[in-house]
TrEMBL record:
Origin species: Sinocyclocheilus rhinocerous
GO cellular component assignments: nucleus
Span of domain COMM: 132-196
Family: Belongs to the COMM domain-containing protein 5 family.
Database matches in InterPro entries: COMM (IPR017920), COMMD5 (IPR037357)
Pfam families membership: COMM_domain
Gene assigned in the entry: commd5
Name of the protein in question: COMM domain-containing protein 5
Length: 205
């Protein structure tokens, strides 16, 4: 059984590694019903009745049923939490887990079809959103201080931010705060770059 599965960033949980063994005891109709029920569970919805009907149908043993549900739940929950996951990568993960080819399309469609449905629902029910930054400018301004006998140059950063709602904001930031901002932005960009280098999130041409 494959130890490394990219969707988990390494070794898959035991219930996922054993998934293929128990899926062999299912037919495609039963798997489809099970996937629908598990997706409801991942979404936090009540799926007990659906699972009860599958369990009592006599089409699958109790042992295979329990293991298959546990494995599918762990797999689908993890996959749906990764927005950058590509379907091709997920399909290869399923092959690494020894899932039969006839079931790969069903499991993959459950993940990516559910994701698109969630996106569409989210777009439809999306409420008012905050304005976005359309343009951002900054420049260094130097003021001459005459508060002491020796005149001193006091640099500051003038910033101008234009939002998507048409509002224009101008403000002044001390150099020290500006350096903190630069450092934090650089840190975030570095962390994003580190994440992108991980195989699970790598964008391939």
């Amino acid at each position: 059984m494959a130890d490394a599965v990219s969707v988990f960033g390494g070794r898959a949980p035991a219930e996922v590694q054993q998934l293929a063994k128990h899926l062999r005891n299912l037919d495609r109709d039963t798997l489809s019903q099970m996937l629908s029920a598990v997706l409801r569970a991942v979404d936090g919805l009540d799926c007990r009745e659906s699972l009860r009907l599958i369990s009592e149908s006599g089409l699958v043993s109790e042992d295979s049923f329990n293991h298959a549900v546990a494995g599918l739940y762990a797999l689908l929950k993890e996959a749906l939490c990764l927005p950058s996951l590509r379907q091709e990568v997920f399909n290869e993960d399923l092959r690494a887990l020894r899932v039969s080819e006839e079931f790969i399309a069903d499991v993959s469609s459950a993940v990516f079809g559910s994701r698109q449905t969630s996106i569409n629902i989210s777009d439809t029910h999306r409420g008012p959103t905050l304005a976005k930054i359309q343009d951002f400018k900054w420049r260094v301004d130097v003021a001459i201080s005459t508060s002491s006998l020796s005149r001193a140059l006091q640099p500051s950063i003038l910033m101008q931010m234009k939002l998507s709602d048409g509002h224009l904001h101008r403000f002044e930031v001390p150099v020290v705060k500006f350096q903190e901002l630069r450092y934090n932005v650089s840190l975030i960009l570095k962390e994003m770059n580190d994440i992108e280098k991980r195989s699970i999130l790598r964008i391939q041409d």
